[in-house]
Amino acid sequence: MKRVSSRVSQQALAEQRRGCHDKWYGHLLELNPNYDHNDEDVHEAHTGRKRVPTEVASELRKLPRAEFMSLWEVDVTNRPRYWGDDKNPPVYDFWTPSELELRTSRQVVQDTVDRAQREIPASASEEDKNVLMNDIHEECLVEQDDKIQRARKVNWFAEANMMDILPDPLREKVRLDIMEDLHAYERQEIRGILREWIPEKYRLDNAPDMRKMALESQKHRLSFLDAIEKVAKKFEGEAASKGYADNLKALVDYHKRQVHPLPHITPETVKANGNITELEQWSRDVFAYNGDDIIFDIWNKAGEVRGNEQVKAFTAQLKSEFKDQVEDFNEEEREFFELFQKCIPLTEKEFLSKQMSENPVLEETLKHSSDVHILEEIEAFYNEHIEAEKKIVDALVSGGAASDIVDELRDLATISNAHYIGSRKYKTLAHELSLLADKHPEEYASFLEKITAMGNHHAQPNAPFAARVELGARLFNTLTEISDQLGYDEM
Fold first, then answer.
1. Lowest-confidence segment of 106-110, 115-119, 435-439, 446-450 by average pLDDT
2. What sign does the CA torsion over 291, 294, 296, 300 have?
3. Model pLDDT for residues 86-103, shown as the tens digit of each residue
4. Over 90: is that where the pLDDT of 211 sits?
5. CB neighbours of 121 closer than 8 A, spacing ≥ 6?
6. CA dihedral angle for residue 290, residue 296, residue 297, residue 301, rounded to 10 degrees
């Protein structure tokens, strides 16, 4: 009887319909006996009324417009790239050896040459010399591999014993959590501490790769090409006398292609080329390699060949946007940018945030006070300062003569304390800007170009950022004009 009942229960369990339960919740079958098994599939599509075609069209119109890439863009960006693929080579897939590998490789060459000179007899046959040379080279490669494996084991040992190596706060975090769940900054700090703990000869630091550096920076690319030329000149005489000038040329060409695979694409060749098909291929080559700014010359030339002024205008706009972003500023240009930010008048929110950061009591009062009169006084205070600064900015961008603007600033300073503080602020900015511009005139000119490009980068009409850039540029021009007419006591 027991046997029959068990067989029946097993059959019922096998025939039970659970929807997608087995796929997602099969491990909960025995863990939670109260789980509700039914015939409904929770992942089944809605079984309600289907939309009519007009409703479908209405929903489709509400969806955002999809901008599809061309087939070539899909091919360039999405298709996996391999070194064996000549038509679509990888860009950033460089194998970067560690400094240890390069150091041991140089040692292998040196040891192979030294041992061959000592151990291979001069009277041996050519075949015996080849066999002995191969044996010596193999032994040196085994020694190199042994050194690299030993270094890897030291690095593995450090990672496996982090709790004994790291200091207390990080040690506790590593003990309680896995490495992948820690913050990126903490992981970076941990890797730095473990690297310092490992002896220098066992560290697996990536060696600087000249191909990557040449890819990212035109300055490095030109310096590498110059270094290759200098080294080649040292061996030109020896190569010519011993008859391997062709081999030297092939080697030099190979190393040049490593750092600059498109030497035929220069501003001169682009200007002289009128073949639209070849220009299109050049633009694709430049885009796929590093997106150098010579691509704008190619597009501009293509616009000339086609006689399309819109293409030329669009290329000029793109070229101005290409030189943008704050990270391009050097130290002097960064100082100009800080003055630029200070001269933009503050909005109500920015002014209140600035006052709250400078005055914690004000922040507490605004957060917790229920006295309407106090809040009204605070609002009247910052409204007065904001309005005063707006009037001063209006005077600065009025477009009048420098002497008239200075007189108007002096008149505004007598109206109230807020007007005096605002006029004093812009007089001080004028003095600082004139000193900095006289000290670094080239950086000032380049800063104005970059900040204008930043405004152009937000190409939609009447964009807020573009308006702020235009206002700041006008204020800069006015401040440099009036700085000479301000007295020393006014700054």
1. 446-450
2. negative
3. 454 555 555 677 889 999
4. no
5. none
6. 130
Place of tokens 């980068």: 457
Predicted local confidence at residue 297, as pLDDT: 92
Q: Which residues fall within 8 angstroms of residue 161, CB to CB, at 6 or more apart? A: none
SS3 sequence of the chain: CHHHHHHHHHHHHHHCCCCCHHHHHHHHCCCCCCCCCCCCCCCCCCCCCCCCHHHHHHHHHHCCCCCCCCHHHHHHHHCCCCCCCCCCCCCCCCCCCEHHHHHHHHHHHHHHHHHHHHHCCCCCCHHHHHHHHHHHHHHHHHHHHHHHHHHHHHHHHHHHCHHHHCCHHHHHHHHHCCHHHCCHHHHHHHHHHHHHHCCHHHCCCECCCHHHHHHHCHHHHHHHHHHHHHHHHHCHHHHHHHCCHHHHHHHHHHHHHHHCCCCCCCHHHHHHCCCHHHHHHHHHHHHHHCCCCHHHHHHHHHHHHHCCHHHHHHHHHHHHHHCCCHHHCCHHHHHHHHHHHHHCCCCHHHHHHHHHHHCHHHHHHHHHCCCHHHHHHHHHHHHHHHHHHHHHHHHHCCCCCHHHHHHHHHHHHCCCHHHHHHHHHHHHHHHHHHHHHHHCHHHHHHHHHHHHHHHHHCCCCCCHHHHHHHHHHHHHHHHHHHHHHCCHHHC
Give dist(CA 410, CA 16) in Å, integer: 90
Min mean pLDDT across 36-45, 58-67, 445-454 is at 36-45
The residue behind tokens 């003095």 is: 431
Closest by Cα among 350, 353, 360, 344 to 392: 344
Q: Residues, the chain, total?
A: 491
pLDDT, tens digit, for every residue of 316-354? Answer: 888 876 654 444 677 788 888 888 888 887 776 677 677
pLDDT average, residue stretch 211-224:
85
* Residue 166 identity: L
Tokens 């000119």 correspond to what residue?
445
CB 354 within 8 A of CB 347: no
Does the pLDDT of residue 106 top 70, yes or no?
yes
13 — pLDDT class (breaks 50, 70, 90): very low
Tokens of 356: 């709250």
